[in-house]
Here is the input.
Amino acid sequence: MKTLIPLILLLAAGLGYATYQFWAPPPGSWTAAEAALIRSMSLSALPPLPADPSNRVADDPLAAELGHQLFFDERLSSTGTVSCATCHQPEHYFTDQLPLAVGKSLGPRHTPGLVGLSHSPWFYWDGRKDSQWAQALAPLEAAHEHDFSRSELASLISSDAGLTALYEKVFGALPEVPMNTAPATPDGDADKIAAWQALDAEQQQAINQIYANAGKALAAYQRKLQPGRSRFDDYADALDDSVDTRTNDSLTDTEIAGLALFIGKADCVSCHNGPLLSNHEFHNTGVLAVDGQLPPMGRYEGVRMARQDSFNCLGPYSDAKPEQCLELRFALDSNELVGAHKTPTLRNVSETAPYMHGGQIATMAEVIQHYNEAPVSMLSHNEAKPLGLRAAELRQLEAFMHSLTAPLATAPRWLQAPASAQGEQALE
Amino acid sequence: MKKPSPRRFAVVLNLLFLLLSSTPPAVAAEPLQAELANGWTIELRSQLQPLVINRLHSWQLILRDSNGQPLNGASIEVTGGMPDHDHGLPTAPLVSATAEDGIYLLQGMRFHMPGYWQLRAVVEKDGFSDEVVFDLQL
Here is the structure.
């Protein structure tokens, strides 16, 4: 009999450990505060799209048509093979399933999705652009992306009857530009800069105007890309009358337990908040630098670049009055921003792996493990703290992440190349 | 003249809110009030109602002397942060004077997380200077 005692003790300890790791029932009820917090994350609480005073055609339907055409047009590249949709693929919520984006060549960053993005005041992982139209200009000229140039863009729009017609409906007469010159831009390699300097100021100005307007049309198109209601939203909206966690069966018990962690012990909600599950702000979460890259400075440098950008809200191609450029004016500039990246939305996140600014983390389970450990940041400090979640809780949090996916609330025609993607036919 | 509290800790707003211990966004923010060491009062009113997170907005600041008379010409600096998270505001707000007596405008405010925030106002005028701290639950 005596010999059995250690065995029984061992079994009991094993059972205890297993229960501890794997048994974590969801809460029975929400406090009023929790219920309100959950409702504040529902799409029903999403405010109307914020106006963009720097882009007077942001909500012009014809501008969106033009942007739609440009977005899918592979002629906007030196190889004739790269469009925005090469990386921002509609069937993958405007991401590309790659760790690092590949345009003309391999780039340094992971492709973020574009859904609901027009609610954000800042663009890029490091926030180096202060409007969606100014953002759209950069990939066109980046050597690893479209490797195009503003002079070629102006030529293309001027020589394609369909694009010219649409452009003129939105922006008025197309200024005259030198046709089919060598690729010219002030932001390219030595040859392109030399070609740019060979143009006179009036030509440069006309080209810049068309370039900026193309960006404004691309932004108008992207404003159409909005998230659709997920099971989580149905669950959150039904909490109105009751704080019983099982008021409705839109979420499973496991997902409800994951939601409780998300807004509670795991505190994801401090950054992933509001209806887009993003505060659109910049945080250091201790993600390792991409192999072979130095740890990035993130927003610390991004805010400087946004201030210096000649296409920012205060620049000559912005439609805003200086006093409307509030984001730029009150942008924080602080050491807190070293290594900080923009909080991405978690809408549809189950469909947009891999994750993080360099695609460093392959799966959702690993993302959650990352937060559980909260490794020390290589630069500055990791704002997230170790969570000490148990195995069952890690699974619950992961399950909740999968309840945020839904088809977009965007008419299907915007999610594919337009019939006239090559610009052959003008839109009537 | 009323005596300033020893730590000059301005007391909380929105008692109702705390009583219900409800922390949701979408609650009308009550004005925040505090007394400075010399008996002056400062009041902060959010112009965003309800006061929600993730929205750039302004506050009106009202500065009065101990007789309730408006005070012009003060320099006021407002900073803020979340003590539990060890970080500040996500923006760099600024205070400017307005055309109205004793009324100042605090622009460029944004709260980016739900939870417990503190705002600090440093008021300086005619050689007098004091700091008050407000608690804010979002």
